[in-house]
Design a protein that fits this description.
With 343 residues, the protein is an alpha/beta fold. The chain has one domain: UDP-N-acetylmuramoyl-L-alanine:D-glutamate ligase (3-Layer(aba) Sandwich). Helix content is 36%, strand content 24%. The chain has a 10-stranded mixed β-sheet, with helices on both faces. The protein starts with a helix and ends with a strand.
């Protein structure tokens, strides 16, 4: 990707409108300091005083923030929240990032806003507390969500489907309805990023990591799937759908399978300390916006890799990548991608 190509792409992204359907969540960091602990009068058990707490967007929320930071015209959030204070904080942060939250639905019964609570004591992270495992999507909520999606359909350039939590939003009935929606709208640009249900959304373009790819194809990948096995899986997934498939491989870059063939988009080497939490969200944001701007799957993977290069340098946070940071990283690295294609 030349400098002119990058500038043209960033300009094109400013016109892109996105509908993002997924698991909108919060990451919560609770820092316990036992110095002021005292026995509870009610139970006699020692209290666990919180010295500080911090919240950041997780799941589809972080993807939405990454898309907005890259400068797209609009991001519409379509998901479910609970009747709890976490929903207030999540919506506040989404709006602060420039995300349209009009499509977020509050379900009063049987639903808690997904939060991944990570208590820390000293330098040690304690057992995580999750709130979404017992969520049950009601038929009425699903109806409202799909009405919102159909309402937005003429007004967006790409639909991104995100799944990071088993069941919850992506319960059996929702997966069936979403799969049918994708099949009915084959002329629309739809990209699915799913940890567990790629088989359900196989009619869409697909973004998966190498472990998910080999598993979807019924292969055993081991701790680190062999490159040849990952390549075979990418080809198989494309053959099933005829839609581009993006297989992320961490430091090894991204494999892209499309109508031209199989392409390897190398990762960008980064020196010094890195934090890979949220890197997949940054990659997805770059891929989705580049595709919606009319670029090739290979160019989309290149932008996804570049966005992730920016965010993994941001330690102890998920992070986002702005156009200015993308340009700076490109200049500092002197980036020239040498992608190759094989039939």
């Amino acid at each position: 990707m030349t400098r002119g190509g990058l500038e043209s792409l960033l300009a094109g992204i400013r016109r892109v409108r996105v509908a993002l359907v997924g698991d909108f969540a919060l990451d919560a960091y609770w820092f316990v300091d036992m110095a002021k602990s005292e026995p509870s009068l009610e139970t006699g058990l020692n209290t666990r005083p919180l010295r500080s707490q911090r919240y950041s967007l997780g799941g589809a929320g972080n993807i939405a923030a990454n898309m907005a930071a890259l400068g797209c015209r609009s991001v519409h959030a379509l998901g479910v929240a609970g009747p709890d204070p976490f929903a207030i904080e999540m919506i506040r942060q989404l709006r602060g990032a420039g995300v349209d939250t009009g499509g977020l639905i509050e379900q009063e019964n049987g639903w808690a806003t997904p939060v991944f609570i990570k208590p820390h004591a000293g330098n040690r992270e304690l057992n995580r507390i999750d709130t979404a495992d017992y969520n049950r999507l009601s038929e009425a909520t699903a109806d409202r969500l799909f009405r919102n999606l159909y309402r937005l359909l003429p007004r967006v350039d790409i639909i991104v489907v995100n799944q990071q939590i088993k069941d919850s939003l992506h319960c059996v009935s929702f997966r069936r309805r979403m799969a049918e929606f994708i099949r009915r709208h084959t002329r629309r640009l739809i990209l699915a990023d799913t940890r567990d249900y790629g088989h359900a959304y196989r009619a869409a373009a697909l973004k998966v990591n190498e472990h998910e790819a080999v598993r979807l194809c019924g292969m055993r990948g081991g701790k680190v799937p062999a490159k040849r096995r990952v390549e075979t899986a990418a080809r198989m997934l494309f053959a099933k759908s005829g839609r581009p498939v993006f297989v992320t491989r961490g430091r090894k870059g991204c494999l892209v399978a499309d109508a031209v063939g199989l392409h390897e988009v190398p990762a960008i080497r980064v020196k010094g300390k890195t934090d890979t939490v949220g890197a997949g969200d940054s990659t997805l944001a770059g891929i989705a916006l580049a595709l919606a701007a009319g670029r090739s799957p290979v160019a989309a993977a290149e932008l996804g890799n570049l966005a992730a290069t920016v965010t993994i340098r941001k330690l102890h946070q998920t992070g986002t990548a702005s156009p200015a940071e993308i340009r700076r990283a490109w200049r500092n690295q002197g980036l020239r991608w040498a992608s190759f294609a094989r039939p």
